[in-house]
Amino acid sequence: MPDTPAPALVPRSRSKRAEDAASLCVSCGLCCDGTLFGFVPVTDHEAEQLKHRLPMLRDPESGESTFSQSCVALGPGGCGVYEDRPVVCSSYKCSLLRRVNAGELDRDDGLDVVDRIRVLVGRLDAVLPPGKSFWPRTQELRDTGEPNDDAGEEARRIFAATLLDLNVLDRILETEIDERLGSIPEAAPAT
Ligand code: SF4
Ligand code: SF4
């Protein structure tokens, strides 16, 4: 989750916005729980520093280190490795957060967006193929494709409804938060 400290000597409205942004992130976690991203890329130094707290993966060809989401460091109070979190985490600011930071969106309205997304994720979670992480499970559904006629009408109906929910989720995320990706993109510019 991003870094949103409230500096001591800033105008009150900016300080309040920073507080709102920080509390939005603690209540949200969509960029850490596998809804938005599948993997987090880290530098070699970060991989070494965090390897006992986050299960690191290393691509044998590129040598790039990552860890998968949902992130095991995410807890009810937010990031469990906050002080040492990778730079890609500390610099990431989704569109929702940037709008709250800029005072363009009220924190409670931001939380309403998060709630709408959670309802969809919960519905999808109940019917997606079993597995640990949400992101690869949704990819698996897409890769599997529509069940054939032998699967029966009910299986095809569930598949169609699930795919519709997934497309709606993608659209809301793209519009309100960010594009869903296997890994975290370049950090968005802070506003
Ligand atoms: S390390 Fe912290 S900020 Fe990064 S994905 Fe995990 S919980 Fe989120
Ligand atoms: S998705 Fe956006 S609002 Fe939610 S925790 Fe990440 S940066 Fe914060």
What would your notes on this structure say?
There is one protein chain. The chain is of the alpha+beta class and 191 residues long. It has seven helices and six strands; from the N terminus they run αβαββββαααααβ. The chain has helices spanning 12-28, 44-50, 87-90, 95-101, 107-127, 134-144, 153-177, and strands spanning 37-42, 56-58, 65-68, 74-75, 78-79, 181-183. It has a four-stranded mixed sheet. A hairpin with a 6-residue loop joins strand 2 and strand 3 (65-68). Helix 1 packs antiparallel against helix 4, helix 1 packs parallel to helix 5 and helix 5 packs antiparallel against helix 7 (153-177). The longest helix has 25 residues, at 153-177. The protein starts with 11 loop residues before the first helix and ends in an 8-residue tail after the last strand. One iron/sulfur cluster binds at residues 1-2, 24-25, 28-31, 92-94, 96-97, 177.
Bound molecules: iron/sulfur cluster
Q: Report the mean per-residue pLDDT as an integer.
A: 88
Parts with pLDDT < 50 across at least 5 consecutive residues: none
Order of helices and strands: HEHEEEEHHHHHE
| Spatial arrangement of strands, main beta sheet | 2-3-1-6
| Largest sheet descriptor | 4 strands, mixed
- Number of domains as seen in the coordinates: 1
- The outline comes out as flat
Q: Termini, distance in Å?
A: 16 Å
Specify the number of helices: 7
Residues in helix, %: 40-55%
Radius of gyration: 18 Å
Quaternary form: single chain
Percentage beta strand = 5-15%
| Secondary-structure class | alpha+beta
Number of strands: 6
